[in-house]
Amino acid sequence: MYLNHLTLLNYRNIVECDLEFSPKINCFLGRNGMGKTNLLDAVYYLSFCKSHINVIDNQIIKYDAEFFMLQGKYLDGDREELVSCAVKHRRKKQFSRNKKEYERLVEHIGFIPLVLVSPADLSLIEYGSDERRRFMDIVISQYDRQYLDNLVVYNSALQNRNALLKTLESIDTTILEVLEEKMCAVAEPIFKSRSQFLENFIPVFKDFYIKIASEQEVVDLAYTSHLQQDDSLQNQFIKTRERDKILGYTTHGTHKDDLQMTLNGFPLKRNGSQGQNKSFLVAMKLAQFVFLKKVSHKIPILLLDDLFDKLDTDRVTKIINLILSDDFGQIFITDTNSIHLNNVLTKSNGHFKFFELIDGEVKENLMG
Question: pTM for the complete prediction?
Answer without folding.
Answer: 0.91
